[in-house]
Amino acid sequence: MQPYSVIVKPVLSEKSNELREAQGKYIFEVRKEATKKDIQKAVLKLWDAEVTSVRTNIRRGKIKRRGLNLSKPVSKKFAYVTLAEGAKLPIFEDL
Which whole number is the average pLDDT over 36-60? Predict the structure, then answer.
């Protein structure tokens, strides 16, 4: 899998900012087919940052009802990437 197609987008929220500042963990939305090794290689290729661990989480879409219609949003896969001590990603620091 190509490194540029693994990471869909970074997650910017209050929880992700707290994790980044306190523990050095960055959260990304990734493709469902991506493995932990693919994510680790993509972060290394894109930002030259040493990755110590990668944890993944799939958030399943909740079924919603509006009248007689049922809909289910798409499930998304997220990666929690922990960097080596003192390493930072510039895309988060510029915001």
Answer: 95
Strand spans (E) along 13-84: 25-30, 51-59, 64-66, 69-71, 76-83
For 24-43, b where at least 16 C-beta lie within 10 A, e where not — what string? bbbbbebeeebeeebbbbbb
Output the pLDDT for position 93. 73
Number of structural domains the chain divides into: 1
- CATH number of residue 47's parent domain: 3.30.70.330
Q: Is residue 26 part of a domain?
A: yes
Q: Which residue from 46, 34, 50, 44 is spatially nearest to 82, judged by alpha carbons?
A: 50
Task: Provide the whole-model pTM.
Answer: 0.87
Q: Give the C-alpha separation, 11 to 84, whole Å.
A: 20
Strands 51-59 and 76-83, sheet pairing: antiparallel
